[in-house]
Write a structure and sequence with these properties.
Blueprint (H helix, E strand, L loop, with lengths): L1 H7 L43 E6 L9 E2 L5 E4 L4 E5 L5 E6 L9 E2 L5 E4 L4 E5 L5 E6 L9 E2 L5 E5 L5 E5 L4 E5 L11 E2 L5 E6 L5 E6 L5 E6 L9 E2 L5 E4 L4 E5 L5 E6 L9 E3 L4 E5 L4 E5 L5 E6 L9 E2 L5 E3 L5 E5 L5 E6 L7 E3 L5 E5 L2 E5 L14 E6 L3 E3 L3 E9 L6 E10 L5 E12 L4 E10 L8 E10 L4 E13 L2
């Protein structure tokens, strides 16, 4: 099972995501709507039927979505302030108590640290064994689900009264941007160029969408007539998709100008999902409908469910859409809007996630549900190429030479078109792209193996640690299918 998970998703335990790694994540579902683009699209097939793998009590109501680590651990927060960890069978591993209600979806870092905000004003960093790593306190409750910068070194979140925060993975604040609206409901979305998008609402019906530079300065502000409580989903071209409480769904260009709007029958609180393969945007409304829109804002189809939709839809690798209305059934829709399956579970519903084995997770009243596994048999052969970074050793001193090789292997039975990128970052945050290969055709059994970087360390080197990361992408889908990472240390002698 673990072998299949690594082949289908990520071949690495620890990953440092460097600039340019816009959709690369070390875990099957590490944050709200899976990545910091918040598209809500899984890399594997979800369940084909509504059969339960397990259901387990979680001590209280949970509003945030479950998140899933690469070892199968599921993390959920609840209304009595607990961060809970369950293994893939539903067995409780540990509970970490905060001092306030947890509404946010947790965030899993590349090193498996779990970050979550609490109404007690703390952003907690909890080790995967359930011990506290650090806590960053502010004088405001944190209900915004945290999100990562593209290089996974900075955590972003909004607040009700204090604006937007950027905190390093060491627990030290990098910047705070005061704004005149509450940004406590959405999760920040991060574009490929590092721009942070976060909306909110204020007194007198005032509502705005903010574009924030990575240094914490304002890039632009776009007012909206309706209150923004949903998270931005970013399209493949950088378009911002989000709904407002006046029932209007918006598409904004990356410069803040409006492309189009679409009017639903009632308010929109749920965030959208974006299918990069079909170019379809999905969102739900309080009018009980799930909407499917084309990229030009025209209606593709809609379906009236059995409850108002406050939880965000998600999409599996085949384009199957899953959504759980409030007080209604769990639905799975085919891309043409027909129902694949429908099944009633308990009342309240949170956001959802899919693990590397196709199991779907969501929370009802006091309960974590696991639906699956996927009914289709696992593929008999590897489906994607594999990248491996090779170095002779991981520690160097003055005068020694470091060679880094990249080995790209297509161990599949298919010819695959791939993109290979390798980056190096030093301890002063200087970034060097080592290899940038676009549209490489790999035939079955092909191996690309060469030394991509060679360096002799000298006295006065500015770097004490070098992070080297490599990714393989499928250009047609934008999905990362393989990833590796190495840490190299240098000590002057």
């Amino acid at each position: 099972m673990l072998h299949r998970r690594k082949l289908l998703l990520i071949i690495s335990v620890l990953v440092i995501l460097l600039a340019g790694f816009t959709d690369v994540w070390a875990h099957p579902w590490p944050m709200f709507q899976r990545t910091n683009k918040h598209r809500g699209r899984a890399l594997v097939a979800g369940p084909d039927s509504p059969g339960l793998s397990f259901m387990v009590g979680i001590g209280a109501v949970s509003e945030g979505a479950p998140v899933v680590a690469d070892d199968g651990t599921i993390y959920v927060g609840n209304h009595i302030g607990e961060l809970r960890a369950y293994d893939a069978s539903g067995k409780l591993k540990w509970i970490y108590p905060t001092l306030g209600l947890i509404r946010a979806t947790p965030l899993i870092g590349p090193d498996s640290t779990v970050y979550v905000g609490s109404k007690d004003g703390g952003l907690y960093a909890v080790n995967p064994d359930g011990t506290l790593k650090w806590v960053f306190f502010i004088s405001d409750g944190i209900t915004s689900s945290p999100s990562f910068s593209n290089d996974n070194t900075t955590i972003y979140f909004g607040t009700h009264n204090l604006g937007v925060f950027a905190v390093g993975v060491d627990g030290v604040m990098k910047w705070r941007l005061p704004v005149d609206i509450a940004t406590s409901a959405p999760s920040p979305a991060v574009a490929s160029d590092g721009t942070i998008y976060l909306g909110g609402y204020g007194a007198g019906g005032k509502s705005k969408m903010y574009a924030i530079n990575p240094n914490g300065t304002i890039k632009w502000v776009a007012p909206t007539p309706g209150q923004i409580r949903s998270t931005v989903a970013l399209g493949s071209d950088g378009t911002l998709y989000f709904g407002t409480r006046d029932g209007v769904f918006h598409a904004l260009n990356p410069d803040g100008t409006e492309q189009w709007t679409f009017k639903a029958g009632d308010e929109i609180r749920a965030s959208a999902a974006f299918d990069i393969l079909s170019g379809t945007i999905y969102f739900g409304s309080y009018d009980k409908k799930l909407y499917a829109l084309n990229l030009d804002g025209t209606l593709k189809w809609s379906f009236v469910t059995d409850g108002f939709i406050e939880g965000s839809p998600i999409i599996d690798s085949r384009g199957i859409i899953y959504v759980k209305p409030h007080g209604g059934s769990l639905y799975a829709f085919n891309q043409n809007g027909t129902v694949k399956f429908q099944h009633s579970y308990q009342y309240l519903s949170s956001g959802m996630s899919i693990d590397a084995n196709g199991v779907l997770y969501f929370c009802g009243d006091f309960t974590l549900f696991a639906v699956g596994p996927a009914q289709s048999p696992p593929p008999p052969n590897p489906q994607n190429p594999v990248i491996e970074l090779i170095v002779a050793k991981d520690a160097y001193v003055t005068g020694e030479t470091m060679d880094i090789s990249a080995k790209l292997t297509n161990a599949t039975t298919l010819t695959r078109l791939v993109e290979l990128k390798v980056y190096m970052r030093d301890s002063q945050q200087n970034l060097t792209p080592i290899v940038d290969m676009q549209n490489v055709t790999l035939n079955p059994g092909d191996t690309y193996n060469k030394v991509i970087y060679s360096h002799t360390f000298a006295v006065g080197e500015p770097s004490t640690i070098l992070y080297i990361g490599a990714r393989v992408m499928i250009p047609e889908t934008g999905d990362t299918v393989s990833l590796d990472f190495k840490t190299i240390s240098f000590r002057a002698q």
